[in-house]
Specification:
Keywords: Cytoplasm. This is CS domain-containing protein. The chain is α+β, with helices and mostly antiparallel strands. About 25% of the residues lie in helices and about 25% in strands. The chain folds into 2 domains: about 35 residues, no CATH class; about 110 residues, Immunoglobulin-like. The chain is built from 3 helices and 7 strands; from the N terminus they run H-H-E-E-E-E-E-E-E-H.
């Protein structure tokens, strides 16, 4: 059930909290169902794609394009494949195989002022207006330094 911004404005604070919580839970379930995990900062997106244990780099077929991403095992259907929701800097984006069981993909965004709603355009979106950027750790350090 999606409502327009006007409807949302008419809700009480409690109703908004309940709606936001329900939206977050639905979003979390949709994201958990994807064949990968991802997180982002304004400048970059990091994706972890589980692959069968014992996979070797030469078994993988990974394609990083300006607006395209495909990850899979050679000779099989890709685990994830499609159009990226935003363009990336291909020459600054990388992938590595970790512990022979996960492909770690690092994408450098071209637009470093925009949150991504999803990785691939056909996958469920997250509400980017609700993203709370991680605060820089400098503030933590200052507190410890002063107290020490």
């Amino acid at each position: 059930m999606s409502t327009s911004a006007d409807d949302y404005d008419k809700l009480t604070k409690e109703e908004r909290v309940a709606r936001d919580k329900a939206d977050r839970e639905r979003e979390a379930q949709e994201q958990a169902a994807l064949p990968y995990r991802w997180k982002q900062q304004l400048e970059e997106v990091d994706i972890v794609v589980p692959v069968p244990a014992g996979t070797r780099g030469k078994d993988l077929n990974v394609v990083l394009g300006r607006k395209k991403l495909s990850v899979g095992l050679k000779g099989k259907e890709p685990i994830m494949s499609g159009e990226l929701c935003q363009e990336i800097k291909v020459e600054e984006s990388t992938w590595t195989l970790e512990d022979r069981k996960e492909v770690h993909i690092h994408l450098e965004k071209i637009n470093k002022q925009q949150w991504w709603a999803n990785v691939l355009t056909h996958h469920p979106k997250i509400d980017t207006t609700k993203i709370e950027p991680e605060n820089s750790k400098l503030s933590d350090l200052d507190g410890e330094t002063r107290n020490g």
